[in-house]
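Problem: given the chain below (402 residues), write out its structure.
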Amino acid sequence: MGTKLITADLPSHHFKPRIYDVGAWTPHLHFAFDLVAVLKPRVLVELGVDRGESYFTFCQSAAENKTGTQCFGVDTWRGDQHAGGYDETTFAQVSTYNRVNYDAFSTLIRARFDAALENFEPESVDLLHIDGLHTEHAVRHDFDSWLPRVRPGGVILLHDVDVRGRDFGAWKVWATLQEQGRSWTFHDGPGLAVWQKPPRQELPGFLEQLLEPPNEWNSALAQYYRERAGEMQRRITEHWRDGTIRQTPFAQQTTIQAFYSKDGAHREEDSVLGRSRHEEWNEIRMELPPGGGASPLRIDFVSPLTIIEVSSIVLTKAGIDYLSIADKAGFDSIILKGDAERLPDPTVLRLKITGIDPQLFLPVVDLPSGEEPLVLQMRLHVSKTASDARWERSPGRDSGSA
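Solution.
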């Protein structure tokens, strides 16, 4: 079988994702679509749904390819130390979307992963996706707990296997699993691992070639999906250029990323996440590590083409306020860089978000040592804006960004 032939008839050639760019799964959506279309699992379980980027792609494939799959998405929809904490907005949006589009065969289980085990018989799951808390202990526990529920020859996916910062440990679990069964790793984005539960059984279509030892076929498949991911990124960039990013699922909530630092450098692995709903004032609380440092804190908003108003920012440790900003003088002390413009306002920090990387640098704060965590609290309001030609620019940092 030629390498061109193996990719020529993949179902994803005609795939148009409905949910994308709301998480870290965008590079793998075409593979997810093909996996369900070809494997035709009777029972599919996802552990860690969040906003549904991967889960609803599985559901979309099951519906469009008429696979007869029963899909189950398990999550608390409360967040964790890696996804960040969030309110009821996420679950409300996900449950509504599921009810409207996939209610006939998709069930959302709002529970901890261990509690959801009782819903499934041993060896009843054909396809399991593990994407919850990503510490080594959590991933290993989820894998060991759910493995008996997966049928022999079934397929397990592990996400984020290439991420080694922020206490992620899926890569450590994956290093041992590769010695125990047939596997393949997609190294796009944060990495996706594909593993077949022993004993070896022949898989349908392209999946058999994918899990064979390295060869021209699985290399061709990896390249095919890499190209599809590139097309998706170009599509997302176009959404930024024409302003339609405001109508995509990505724009339904604002993600807040707080970078802590002792040396003035800001690294992805030294950050925590939060999330805010739109069109109303929200109180955001983000807990940072005890030794994180605020030299300075940097706050990024992933909030396409919106207006953000901040009425207060407070940093506390052991119940003591070490930074409190709630007036114009305090807001003027914040340094603004990247894709944002400061709008005049006498009472709040009012920002126009013009791209994908706005950055706020708070004043440097000297903090005492101690085991108590830092707590960052913000009160903010995010609103969508009307179409404006000034918004129409490519995502990325402008000349003033760090």
